[in-house]
Amino acid sequence: MKKKKKTxxxxxxxxxxxxxxxxxxxxxxxxxxxxxxxxxxLTEYKIAIEQEGGIWTSGRHTRGKGYQQDLDxxxxxxxxxxxxxxxxxxxxxxxxxRAFLKEHL
Length: 105
What we know:
Layout: H1 8-19, E1 25-29, E2 37-42, E3 47-52, H2 64-79, E4 83-88, H3 89-93, H4 96-104
Parallel strand pairs: 3-4
Antiparallel strand pairs: 1-2, 2-3
């Protein structure tokens, strides 16, 4: 897999995870057969974290096919025992995702 350049939100969120003391893996492949990946995984806790982009601009995650693919991926993850957290880019940039993790984990 070719490495893509990280966005400002991705860099910031990884900084937040490190500040909170979480060991994490980015682009974590969780399914034994499918090539699905989580944006981040806290494997110690079996918590998946997804960044939902394009929610205000009709991005891939909010259009029919992409939305359905995300449903399939997320449902399989839950069946495999993963807890799933979803944050918008805005949640990350404004610190709401960090505050949520600090309060609940």
